[in-house]
Amino acid sequence: MTTSSNLAQRLHTRRIRMLLWVSVGLMGTLGCVWFVIFGLLGRWDIAFLELGLLVTGIAAGVLTHWRRTRLAWMLVVLVGYVTLCLFSVFFDAPDAVAPRTSHLYLLVLTLATMLVFRDEAPALRWSLVAIMLMTFVAFSSSNWSGSSELSIGKDLRKYGSWVNASTAMFGLVALVHIMLTEWVEVGSLERGIAQALEKQEFFFALSTASPC
Fold first, then answer.
1. CB-count exposure of residue 32 (10 Å: 0-12, 13-18, 19+)
2. pTM of the model as a whole
3. What's the pLDDT tens digit per position in 105-116?
4. What residue spans define the domains of the chain?
5. Which of 72, 130, 178, 205 could be 63's S-S partner, Cβ–Cβ 3.0 to 4.6 Å?
6. Are the CB atoms for 130 and 31 separated by under 8 Å?
């Protein structure tokens, strides 16, 4: 059982690194694209906020490469949460043209945090999850926003809402796929070890199931 747990942990660690690289790519791509768009529109307040996402993605990628996965995800969660809250309050105010959609990424961030911090202290994991879910519910259940003068133009928000919703749903599907794949691999690994023990073929099963 100890060997099975060790192998399952190695599979989980590999999934976490995969998730981090996906997050790094998403933050970097969105940050770069929106930085250029808002820069061309002369909205440098929003452009520099997007630049912060790009820089965060690069920093998280470096930390992931150094296998500092816990620190990398804490950075992603902190910057991502603050950025999403600022956007939802000041720049993505709901109106008759388009709904607020920036807060949808909070669901992706919440689900990813549950996966990444699976082995962390329950107090840390569930505190982060509760904060992000309560924030999501607050934005979804109200039309409150900050100064309307800071809001993004209606034409851009109309198309941007489709981009945000589609990207967030893609992120949720990708996360569920990663979680289901991990569960299937761990279950298959444990069944293989159990069968090998019964047939006294443990070392053969170990050599075929452990490579990462």
1. middle
2. 0.79
3. 999 999 999 888
4. 2-209
5. 72
6. no
